[in-house]
Known about the structure:
This protein is mainly alpha-helical. Helix content is about 55%, strand content about 5%. It contains ten helices and three strands. Strands 1-3-2 form a three-stranded mixed sheet. Helix 5 crosses helix 7 (about 150-160) and helix 9 packs across helix 10 (about 210-230). The radius of gyration is 21 Å and the shape is globular. The model has no long low-confidence stretch (mean pLDDT about 90).
Amino acid sequence: MAANVEPRRPFGGRLLRWAGQAVLAFVALSLVMVTVYRFVPPPFTWTMAGDLIGGHTVTKRWRAIDSIDPDMARAAIAAEDSRFCSHSGFDYDAIAAAMYRNAKGGKVLRGGSTISQQTAKNVFLWQGGGYFRKALEAWFTVLIELIWPKKRIMEVYLNVAETGIGTYGVEAGSQRYFRHGADRLSRSEAARIAAVLPLPKKRAGVAPQGFTRRYGNSIAARIAIVQRDGLDACVR
Length: 236
């Protein structure tokens, strides 16, 4: 008597099963990575890999947020994300305002991305746009907001953000531009580094010219407002 042979599933069904398994594996891996980086400094990023491929050296030096001058976090908040301590990862008002200015053709000093979103992108993803990358960025933003305290998000951001060609983190940026550690940053120096962050490959933190100089001066003035209004309370 012939043995019973289980019929093969249709290819479409198998494809859906594989896709489901891949999604579950991605979710599990991302949860593990975000949990580990809650306590361990991220060792490397895709942006750093891009610099190495492009022939640049990578300079980075991790520094705990408590040993970074407080004005650096204030400068980042003033320049990039004034509602950092109050939002849950996404600043919908800033996103709407950026979209409106883009539609009108006006200048946008910063886009709608929060520090949390930029941290998610810098640590787990690659630079550039596209809906797929944006969707992944949103996923990792939700995860780090759920698993990391705000102070940790700021700490990671200040250590992995690109502050010059092949230069990562405010400690390496401070050493590169001012020849001293990030614990000794003056208010104007912190503002200059913050002014470089949106375009680190095209702007210089030392002897800035034109827009970068004006933008740095504007950030320096707003640092006092951040401190006065307690907008940095979650990182102190």
